[in-house]
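G., the chain you wanted modeled:
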Amino acid sequence: MKIGLMGGTFDPPHIGHLLIAEQAKEQLQLDAVWFLPAKLPPHKQSTVTSAAKRLELVRAAVRDNQDFSVSEIEFERETKSYTFDTIRELKRRYPEHAFFFLIGADSLVSLGTWHRSEKLYKEIEFGAVARPGSRYLIPEGARVTAVDMPLLEVSSTDIRQRVARGRSIRYLVPEPVRQLIEEWNLYAT
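Predicted structure as tokens:
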């Protein structure tokens, strides 16, 4: 099987994440997309929402799509989650699968700074999704396939700010995610 991997903090997951996954699934001819929420993201000092709640938000976001699922592999570690380590472990557990790591094209610029990046390039191919204002600057040695998608300016930061200001996030996040945000009183100040 060809599996797309979508890592992230997902604080919260939104329609942009789902659109990226769907477009990558179609264009890269993937059989499934696995969402990999980071328990302890290495690039952030802290998250707004607990890891357990972010995991539940991702589950709620993908539950209506049979081709999407959530992996808890990064929750098995008590230390920061590095993509290289996660990919190696997934390949060990599922040697019959071919994996693609889905990434925003704007993140390609910093890919060389990722933990063990040169070895990561040998481990996995990347599906790079264009974001508004980004260009494909592919690091030497990285295997990258472009994924086109409609440009959609939505971010987790904007969603958190909207909630804090009492503004609607309807249609920016899946309805089950919106309901959990409201129920748990997330992001309100």
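The domain at 2-151 is CATH 3.40.50.620 (Rossmann fold).

Shout if anything looks off.
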